[in-house]
Amino acid sequence: MTATSTNRPEKRNPMAVPYTPDPHNKQLLPLGVDPSNSRPITLDLDLYPHLLIEGGTGSGISSTLRLITAHTVATGGVVDIIDPRTASLSEFDGVPGVHINTDPATFAAQIEAFHAEMQQRFEQSVTGPRRLLAVDDLATSIVAARHSEGPDLKNAVRMLGEVAFAGRAVRMHLALGRADRAALRRLGDAGQLREAATVLLLGKSSRMTAQHLGVDPLMRRSYPGAAVLKTPGASSRQIALAYLTEEQARIVATRAPATG
User: Please, which residues have CB within 8 angstroms of residue 182's CB and are 6 or more apart in sequence?
Assistant: First the structure.
């Protein structure tokens, strides 16, 4: 356990699914298993690079971002985390390849820099390492920045929408937690964004929320770790999410990235 997390009790998931990556296919993110047959469910980040993750408090958004962050760094990628709650992903403090920003006054600048790198990759016709921008709580980030002394996030947040439409070609990825209706509206055309991103719906969300995200509202999410997954153009499916403790995530993230 790291020094930054020893004062916080570790929440263990009683339905935890082991994290089992494929060393030969680094683009495959092991999200969990199909609860009906225990077959692994992976997300191909080359095909589906962006995720919208929605759920209430305690539903597992931070745990899911922990898994995605650890996997990205362990496979040679770089992760920028916007964390307005200051502590939810602190297990990655000091991990090479992970930058955590908890200062609302600089959220806009961080998004602008991420967008600028995407444009530079396009202009130079290079892809570079996989790069992920993870926002632990998009709705709170927007509110926090609007009430800080920093720049307005309005234009910067719309840049996230541009990354969602164009980032796949240059390995620039988004994972947006608490992507509720109000937050999505600020990204531009929310309908088009939902079509471009994979949706993970966690916990006991309302039927209205599910319908807004294009997820089948009748699919149950009644136990810890249960979620509904919907990739662009596919039907909703149930998934039992993989889970890493804070200590496990740090160990995974600090492994030497595979080459090639």
Answer: 139
Q: What is the model's pTM?
A: 0.85
pLDDT in tens, 141-188: 777 666 665 557 778 888 888 888 889 999 999 999 887 777 777 766
d(CA 49, CA 185): 20
- CATH fold for the domain made of 58-253: Rossmann fold (3.40.50)
With 0-12 / 13-18 / 19 or more C-beta atoms within 10 angstroms meaning exposed / middle / buried, residue 164 is buried
Q: Please state the φ and ψ torsions of residue 80, each to the nearest 5 degrees.
A: -110, 125
Report d(CA 201, CA 72) in Å as an integer.
Answer: 21
3-class DSSP state for residue 96?
coil
How far apart, in whole angstroms, are the C-alpha atoms of residue 138 and residue 52?
10
User: How big is the chain by its Cα radius of gyration, in Å?
Assistant: 17
Distance CA 6, CA 91 (A): 10
∠165-170-175 over CA atoms, to 5°? 55
What single-letter amino acid sits at 234? Answer: A
Q: Which two tokens stand for residue 129?
A: 């390492």
User: Could you give the CA distance from residue 80 to residue 69 in angstroms, rounded to a whole number?
Assistant: 9
Task: Report how far residue 253's alpha carbon sits from residue 243's, in angstroms, rounded to the nearest whole number.
Answer: 14
